[in-house]
Design goal:
Helix content is 16%, strand content 37%. The chain has 5 helices and 14 strands. The chain is elongated. The chain is an alpha+beta fold. The protein has 2 domains: 91 residues, Rossmann fold, CATH 3.40.50; 162 residues, Hnrnp arginine n-methyltransferase1 (Distorted Sandwich). α3 links the parallel β3 and β4.
């Protein structure tokens, strides 16, 4: 919100802004700033879900901060699809596109923390993605592979379910405990933000990578191929990821049906 106001001021443009937010705590913060800061006089705080709110008029620009560490893991596609009905025909969505990506990782401490004490919840905790600041990890494959891509506005309302098959070749003898996930985002035109290791933006301290653990770590020799499979799925209540390997050994699908970890719609 503050960035939008600064941009309008630099452009010497008069704007009307609707700050649509369903988080109660965030609404209180927005209303406090609207009351106390003169520059916020053009802002109307709307305490609603953007997918349900009925806008008084079409918007020229729709700005969202719903990106997660894996790009879509905060339901940005579903929320923006639901809100795009109040975007003008020639309107602009920020962000315009984002891509998630993955790489295998050797991370014994992370995997051990995720597994816990080996109790009955171990399966569930090893079928969950974790946003983590990476320490004491090693990436045995040099390539980071693109996974899921999204674009906005999604005028045709194409499904946000996805499937990707990603192949990696490990460069050294290693133990693979899971995968690290990243995102790269096109905000507008040539303006991007990214936590992708090859083009990470400066000062990106608000996002850490995601860690997707394997149920059983893999002991691999140099040159071994890892063939992984990734799904993004949904039902009426939730969205979830599933993942599995077919090489070098086939593994059961982790988190089928979102049984251990899901994002509530």
């Amino acid at each position: 919100m503050a960035a939008s106001l600064r941009a309008a001021k630099r452009a010497n443009a008069q704007v009307n802004i609707w700050a649509v937010e369903k988080n109660v705590n965030a609404v209180h913060g927005l209303r406090h700033r609207q009351r106390s800061e003169p520059d916020w006089s053009c802002v109307e705080v709307v305490a609603e879900d953007m997918r349900l709110w009925k806008a008084p008029q079409k918007a020229d620009v729709m700005v969202s901060e719903l990106l997660g560490s894996f790009g879509d893991n905060e339901l940005s596609p579903e929320c923006l699809d639901g809100a795009q009905r109040f975007l003008a025909d020639d309107g602009v969505c920020i962000p315009q596109a984002y891509m998630s990506s993955l790489a295998p990782v050797s991370a014994p401490v992370l995997w051990g923390d995720a597994r816990g004490n080996g109790n009955d919840s171990a399966q569930s905790s090893l079928e969950t993605g974790y946003v983590v600041c990476l320490h004491k990890v090693f990436h045995p494959a040099t390539m980071v592979k693109d996974c899921f891509a999204f674009q906005h506005p999604n005028n045709s309302l194409l499904s946000n379910d996805r499937y990707a098959e990603l192949e990696f070749q490990v460069d050294v003898d290693c133990v693979v405990h899971g995968f690290t996930g990243y995102f790269d985002c096109k905000l507008y035109d040539n303006v991007r933000i990214s936590i992708h290791p090859e083009n990470q933006s400066d000062g990106m301290f608000s996002w850490f990578p995601m860690f997707f653990p394997l149920q059983v770590p893999l002991h691999l020799r140099k040159g071994t191929t890892i063939r992984s499979h990734w799904w993004r799925r949904h039902d009426m209540r939730k969205v979830w990821y599933e993942w599995a390997l077919s090489e070098p050994v086939p593994t059961p699908i982790q988190n089928p049906g979102g049984r251990s970890w899901a994002m509530e719609l």
